Amino acid sequence: MAWSVIEATPPHLTYLILSGFLILYALFSSFIRNRLHLSEPPLATLLGIIIGPNVLNIIDPRAWGFEDSITQELARVVVGVQVFTVGVDLPKAYFNRHWKSVAMMLGPVMIFGWLIVALFVYLLLRTDVPTALIVSACLTPTDPVLAASVLSNSQFSTRVPGRLKHMLSAESGCNDGVSFPFLYAGIFALTASSAGEGIKEWILETILWQCVFGLALGAIIGIIANRILRFSYGNGYIDGSSFLVFYILLAVFSIGVGSTLGSDDFLIAFGAGTGFAWDGWFAKKTAEAHLPNIIDLLLNSSMFVYFGATIPWSRFFTPGQYTPDVTPGRLTTLLILVLLFRRLPIVLALKRYIPDIKTYREALFCGHFGPMGVGALFLAIEARAQLETGTARPLPRPPKNSPHEAAIEIIRPVICFIVLGSIMVHGLSVAAISVGSHYSKGVDERTPLIGGETDGLTGMVHEGGGGESEPSVSGDEDPDRND
User: What is the rounded CA–CA span in Å between residue 34 and residue 481?
Assistant: First the structure.
């Protein structure tokens, strides 16, 4: 029979559904982003939940053999490419002028968030202190993938001062890598044979090798790649398509260098992107290509569909031997506390010490806008791998009778629940802010469409140097070639 030739297997249906979703989103992307004020992550996650094993059961990555090691590498590539993209998209020589603001976000703000979330985890889920520090470290960084989906290429993003967008982008690019010291502080506290040995490993391996060396190596890779590409372009050795592909290949290369050397993949990728685009030349040449938007649509959206299909729902509702306090009520309470206290209080308190934040409304926006996503998933698997094997390579399934079994068992359900909540809250907050801004105006000042305003958000400084991060984002000169 003719019907026998139809092969509606799960992988084939995945190709069909995922590509169909991306096609539909692409066709109506402007309407979805600028009228409905929705971004890809919550929609892609909902699709993953619907077609996943708990609803329609069309795709089940776990049944296909997609274990933690596969998820780890997918997350590594997605986050690595995104932080490289952030580094490329920043204004030329950005850190020369804005290092203090970024340092405040990466220092006091991250430390406060790490400690306060650890306190909530310790009290609500009744873990030991090292486990609470590990879980909290996974939730400390701002996710560059979620941040990019809101901060770029939308009507809403044009209503936010440029300096805030650049500061939040720079923070999200750095802090996935900067969170490694927080993560390994908890890991070494749990696994080190003595306090002295743990501190020694933390300083030598985490601070010096992974972070300091990683960032420096990334910057060197980026600067050298910039010089090589300019030479090739100036002499006509490279064509237009290869010029654009070079961008993605360099991102993956930097990730490969970091993972091979056992250094901080994300700091190397961010350093490479920043060094590569330090002079603004590449950003100027590719301004019309919209490469970050292409990455968002293809790579990042696919990752969120995958996440939606792998959410461990049963772990939320069925407490285990080592997770008796992981219940829906406690997880929901933890989510609310994390969203309210992880960043908001400290950013408001330090507003006067962060030069790029001019008003308390801006501090409120920056304090709220700290999404947790793919980076948290990667760190969770990294933590489990270290506790399972003492390396960065996780086992296919958590081992039984491990001395760290309680910590291993609690990490995944807690991180997945908080990430799911953050995707929905932060992904939908743009719509909430836009609608709230619409109704906060007088009747005569509102646009015909709800949330259709294009003026700057109220309570923020938009004019002149107070609103813009730099005079221009890209280099104004091109000494290599005149087009």
Answer: 37
